[in-house]
Amino acid sequence: MGIQFSKYQGLGNDFILIDNRHTTQAIITPEQAVAMCDRHFGIGADGVIFVLPGEEDTDYTMRIYNSDGSEPEMCGNGIRCLAKFIADLEGIGEVNKTYRIQTLAGVITPQLQGNGKVKVDMGQPQLTAQEIPTTLTDGSEKVIAQSLEIADKTWLVTCVSMGNPHCITFVSDACAVPLEQIGLLFEHHPVFPQRTNTEFIQVVKPDYIKMRVWERGAGITLACGTGACASVVAGVLNGKCDRTCTVELPGGCLKIEWSEADNRVYMTGSAEPVFTGYYG
Predict the structure, then answer these.
(1) What amino acid positions are annotated as catalytic residues?
(2) Which domain does 189 fall in, by range?
(3) Which stretches of 134-224 are DSSP H helices?
C-alpha cells in the first residue's frame, strides 16, 4: 500500500503530512523525503512534516524535512498545517482547540480558531548574533542594519531568530529583487554558519508590508511563517513597522503581532487540506 500521507498548504507553502504517532522515529529517511517532495517525479511539496508522540508535558512532537532533505528547527506555515492535520486525525473538526507541540525550536502552541485560521504563539524572538547565529557582529550584540556584500552589492541586513535563522533586508520593490540569482548566495554566505532564510521586505505602510522569501533548504516559496514573524520584528527594530502588521506574501496574507506586553510573536493565518493518498 505504501506510505499514507495527507497534503496541506498554508498560503501556498505546501507540505506532506505523515501520521507518525505510533513511534518516536520518523518513518522515512531524508532521502525519501527529497523524492516525495519532487514536483515532477514525486508528490510535490516544500517539505515533509511528521506528527510524533508528545514529550513530557506536550501533546505532540513535530519534525520536518525540507525538500532538500535538511531538517529545520521549525516552520511557521508548517505548524499551522500540522495543527489542522492533528485536528482532522482526532476528528474534532473546526472547534477551538490549542495544542502544545514540541519542536527543535522549543514548545510552540497553535490554536485552531474555528474559522479555517490558526493562531500560533511563536515565542520570543532571539536577537543577538550568537543566538541567530551569525558572525556579522560580536556575539552578544544585535544585528540591525549591518552591511553585507552579496553579488557586488552592499545590502543592509537585520537578523532575527524565530527558532531558526532569518536575514531581513528592506527594499523599495520586493518584486524587482532577482531572488533566483541571489537567494542561494545569502543562504550559504559564510557569515551564517547554519545557513539562513532570507526575506526581502517592501514597506507599503507601517501596518502593511510585502515580502518575498528564499527559504533555507527549500529555495523560493510562496510563504514563510517564521520569516513573516522575523520580518515584522526587524521592521520594528528599524523603526519601519508597527508591532501589529499584515504581511503580504505571494501565497496570501498573514497577521503578525509582536506583543509589547510579553515580547512574544503571534501569527495568524490559514491552513487547508489538499488531498490524501499513498506513496510508493
Answers:
(1) 75, 224
(2) 146-263
(3) 179-187
Give the CATH number of the domain where residue 158 resides. Answer: 3.10.310.10
Q: Which helix (H) or strand (E) holds 209?
A: strand 208-215
What is the C-alpha separation between 56 and 63, in angstroms, rounded? 16
| Same domain (yes/no): 171, 239 | yes
CA distance 15 to 44: 8
Which pTM was predicted? 0.93
Residue 109: closest CA among 62, 45, 172, 50: 62
The answer to whether residues 31 and 51 belong to one domain is yes
Residue 176 forms part of a structural domain: yes
Count the residues in the chain: 280
Q: Taking a C-beta distance cutoff of 8 angstroms, is the pair 114, 169 a contact?
A: no
H or E segment to which residue 61 belongs = strand 60-66
Q: Which set of grid coordinates corresponds to residue 153?
A: 552589492
pLDDT, one tens digit per residue, over 133-171 is 999 999 999 999 999 999 999 999 999 999 999 999 999
Asked if residue 127 is part of any domain, the answer here is: no
* R_g over Cα of the chain: 18
Residues of the chain with pLDDT below 50 are none
User: H or E segment at 193?
Assistant: none
Name the helix (H) or strand (E) containing 101. strand 101-103
Residue 143 C-alpha cell reads as 544585528
Q: Which residues of 231-245 are buried (b: 16+ CB within 10 A; e: fewer)?
A: bbbbbbbbebbbbeb
